[in-house]
Write a structure and sequence with these properties.
Length: 282
């Protein structure tokens, strides 16, 4: 059972995933789907991510000293700044600042913001079990996994807002349809990349079932299974019905997206736990 600092580290890491994937995913959707009025949402995610990135880095100082003084110890933080944790923070801050700058510009701004989001997500690839145990190929797989997950996460709030407004029913159907077509490629990549990383880290079903790491990972698998089921219903039933003018289907889609939020919240919580407090089985 994690102690206070362990629980706080997991919570901040969850907020960091939430902010980075939300900010990057929102601008990815803006570029690929043509969302409008997305800038304030992406900026909100980005500010959450910036605060969480800095706090997460400071908590690493506390973990090394064993108390809160490590969070503000210049010598300790300076040492951390030279490690992979420092590189991760630099990429996250740099990427998020570039993303925010991109949101200011009307022309080419979305593309600049998307590049910033990609750099920020690259910060997750520099630390953790994958870079510690695998080469650049699996690191690229991890980045693809994150990009696809961010794209899915990024559509939730914009699509829910559109579906909740009867005046935007047809627009919600168009946005949902565009997302569904891209998701036909993105979702399989998300799942296959996750499976490949799991195989590389654990190697066998017995390692999954017989270790705390693997058992915790199964919670993420369950959350992803929920997301896949909801996504399939949205694409095959609710969005096509909305395109035909059925307002009741829009209400169903809003409810479905709420459950998708829960699924993502669980998946991010498990990921934060796996990358913060659990070790791989020997």
């Amino acid at each position: 059972m994690p102690d206070f600092w362990g629980i706080l580290t997991i919570a901040v890491k969850w907020a960091l995933y939430f902010g980075v994937l939300g900010a990057a995913g929102t601008v990815f959707c803006a570029v690929l789907i043509g969302l409008s009025q997305f800038r304030s949402l992406a900026a909100s995610y980005a500010f959450i991510a910036l605060a969480s990135a800095v706090l997460s880095f400071m908590l690493k100082g506390a973990a090394l000293t064993g108390d809160a003084t490590g969070m503000t110890d210049p010598e300790m933080l300076s040492l951390l700044w030279q490690t992979k944790s420092g590189l991760s923070l630099k990429m996250q801050i740099g990427g998020l600042v570039l993303l925010l700058l991109g949101l200011v510009f009307a022309r080419y701004g979305s593309g600049i913001a998307a590049i910033g989001g990609l750099i920020a997500m690259g910060g997750f690839v520099t630390i953790g079990h994958i870079p510690d145990r695998a080469g650049w190929v699996l690191e690229a797989v991890l980045l693809m996994h994150l990009v696809c997950g961010a794209f899915w996460f990024g559509i939730l709030v914009p699509l829910r807002r559109l579906a909740a407004d009867p005046a935007h029913l047809s627009k919600a159907a168009v946005v949902g349809g565009k997302f569904g077509r891209i998701a036909l490629l993105a979702v399989p990549v998300l799942v296959l990349a996750g499976g490949l990383m799991t195989y590389n880290l654990l190697g066998s079903p017995s390692a999954v079932i017989g270790s705390l790491y693997g058992q915790t990972l199964l919670l993420k698998v369950a959350a992803v299974a929920l997301l896949l089921g909801l996504g399939a219903i949205n694409k095959l039933r609710f969005v096509p019905a909305m395109a035909c003018g059925e307002t009741r289907s829009a209400a169903h889609l809003v409810r479905s997206i709420t459950f998708e939020w829960i699924g993502f919240a669980v998946a991010l919580a498990v990921t934060a736990t796996l990358t913060s407090s659990l070790s791989l089985p020997v």
